[in-house]
Amino acid sequence: MLQTFNERNRDLIVNINGRLTHRNEAAVSPFDSAVQGGDAVWEGLRLYRGRIFRLTEHLDRLRNSALALAFASIPSHDDITREIRRTLEANRMFDGVHIRLTLTRGVKLTSGMDPRLNQSGPTLIVLAEHKAPVYSTGGLTLVTSSVRRFPPDCLDPKIHHNNLLQSILAKIEANAAGADDAVMLDMHGFVAETNATHLFAIAGGVLRTPRTVACPEGITRATVLELCHRHDIAHEVTDLSLAEFYRADEVFCTGTMGELAAVTRIDGRRIGHGEVGPVTRRLSMLFRALTEQEGTPVVDSPVESA
User: Fold this and answer.
1) What's the CA gap between 56 and 97, in Å, rounded?
2) Cα 233 from Cα 210, distance rounded (Å)
3) Which has fewest Cβ within 10 Å: 8, 22, 77, 121?
């Protein structure tokens, strides 16, 4: 599914280390670690009517990833939130916004992978765009990728890092097959996630999702499990094979960019009745209600602040 360009984003103001510039003038040094080696961590945030959903959880994950990569300095939650607010205010944004937050190890003294070459502190990039959830509400088609997710002993998926080549290779395969996204397996052949989202399967009235052994600890995923607990929806976290997804009554995926999206075909097999199922619809409504009630206030309505 190819995202289309939103004209409201043509004159975006981008924030790089506190400097607010037009998107066409924004620049990152060729000596920056993100350019030199993908040495950076990131988060995707969503703004709902002036509030960012699960902001603290996202910033905790960003910080934890940077700690795992031994960043010498990491901006505080308050400092990062302030730059997010400045960026949103500069763009007069209030609702229906996706924020890509990137923290790199910073600019190097000279080219090279050695972190000791980084002596000027990290680079913080805040990119906010007008962007609705990216997936169709009618159902997605997936194919299984030949690219496997790394286990923790190769590259720990708990580090939410910027090197997305595994996902990109899987997405290339999905594009070639005419699918929306790709299912990715772990090294034991169990389903890990897609190239961009976590997966859930419903069978016999029980919702199941793979363990986070070879995939990140998803915040939308955790929210869905929390909703199941709150609303007495039977659920389980366990290893799942492809066959268990093929024969499921319903399948859906989760992520900040796409929220909850039904999956209706995997590897040419119709899932359930080939339409959005009742459990998926219910959880989507519960998730939507939660985003309307919760979130960290970051900006006021442009009308109110004028």
Assistant:
1) 17
2) 17
3) 22
Q: Rounded to the nearest 10 degrees, how much is the dihedral formed by the CA atoms of 238, 43, 131, 302?
A: 130
Hey, which residues does 118 pair with through a beta bridge? 108
Strands 123-130 and 296-297: what pairing? unpaired
What CATH architecture is 140-292?
Alpha-Beta Barrel (3.20)
Q: pLDDT tens digits for 147-170? A: 999 999 999 999 999 999 999 999
The Cα-based distances of 172 to 22, 145, 147, 182, 287 in angstroms read 31, 9, 11, 9, 30
- Rounded-to-integer distance, Cα 181 and Cα 189, Å: 18
pLDDT tens per residue across span 61-106 = 999 999 999 999 999 999 999 999 999 999 999 999 999 999 999 9
Tokens of 270: 């119709």
Q: What is the CATH number of domain 7-130?
A: 3.30.470.10
Q: What are phi and psi of 42, to 5 degrees?
A: -150, 165
Q: How far is CA 257 from the centre of its chain?
A: 6
Six-digit token string for 237: 């976290």
Distance separating alpha carbons of residues 197 and 215, to the nearest angstrom: 9
User: Tokens 């720990």 — which residue?
Assistant: 156
List, by residue range, all CATH 3.20.10.10 domains of the chain.
140-292
Tokens of 3: 């995202």
Give the amino acid at 146.
S
